[in-house]
Please model this.
Amino acid sequence: MLVTRADPADAEAVAAVASGARYDPEACLIVARPAPRVAGSVTVVTGGTSDLPVARECAAVLDAFGVTAEVIADVGVAGVHRLLGVRDRLAAADAVVAVAGMEGTLPTAVAGLVSAPVLAVPTSVGYGAAFEGLAALLSMLTSCAPGVMVVNIDGGFHAALAARRVLAAGGTPP
Model:
């Protein structure tokens, strides 16, 4: 069982009917009976620390489905040296989930650095013309890096399931 966008009251209610359920307050996720471990790993990378709630949800869902996930935070393209500094860790993953708000260029930059599939998650963080994630969504949809897969705004859960399917289908291309 998996409950997303959960709060402490939800966790208490689930614990009353599902023994062993655990609540992750950072990911706002409740998991009971996680899946067995599977081969492959996913790296979840964020543009900024404000993208962490969505990234943590994604990583926690991956973990619940048996996938090893690593979160690397705050490597957005405004400080490209930070992204280049984790290039080897990104390249080691079987899939990469790039989570970013504002202008949403992180997935394009990541796709230029790795051969693994890249999944893009726009977030609703930002201000002004970010339009609650719409600007990032449109930027990701029009990425000049071919093959970037985009899920909906704040769709950490959806990106996790898509990444799990990528791994099940054989992961990275030759």
In short: The CA atoms of residues 9 and 126 lie 29 Å apart.
